[in-house]
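Reviewers of the previous submission asked for a worked example of the structure-prediction workflow described in the proposal, so we include one complete record here. The input consisted solely of the amino acid sequence. No template or homolog information was supplied to the procedure at any stage.
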Amino acid sequence: MSEEKLPVPMREEHIIKPSIERLTTIKPEPLFESIVGYSDVKRLFQLSLSSEKPVHILLVGPPASAKTLFMIECMRLERSYFTLGSHSTKSGMIDYLFDKRPRYLIVDEIEHMPMKDQTGLLSLMETGILAETKFQKTRNTHLKTWVFATSNATDRMLTPLLSRFVVLHFKQYSFGSFREVCAHILGREGVTPDVAAAIAEAVWTKLKSKDIRDCIKIGRLAKTKEDVEWIAQTLRAYKQ
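From that input alone, the workflow returned the following structure tokens.
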């Protein structure tokens, strides 16, 4: 009687290797793909990113006009550094620039950066030279850094700093654009099209808001159109 052959147990690497191979084939989403519209602005950013020398871009406009979405996408770039203008200080930012030497500096709401701190960017953006005199010690270096920033307005920005940017002024969404953006973003959050449409309508007409963030808040709470109606009524009742 021949000896029965038992199956050879699979080694652990044989089990997990196919999964690793599948993961390595997943490609990241193209830059700016998640943003609805603005094909011309996307192209300008791509041209800046492919430029041999830095071309800095400033997006100006009211809140909830997709400015920050562009900054969030730029954060995906390798060697990028994100900061809020209100949280930036000249010494802190310069220390970071010296230490980390980022290729892309992303500043949201740059108009809230104090005037004295804005001067820390002037030479860097114009010549790539970063210099600091501190406690009678001077240090300087040369960086190749692109600066991408947003601002709600420009009246609080230094004129020399403003002149170093390619400035693009964004307008408030129309209802058609607002509804389209809402459907796109909420679709990525798993919200069904009919509920997303109801949310866009409720935020625009009942809450009198043009802020996509309000759509996202309701989208994460509501499961049905009835939920949307109730949430919108509740938020309106407690709105100042």
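The longest strand covers residues 129-134. We consider this example representative of the routine output the project will generate in years two and three.
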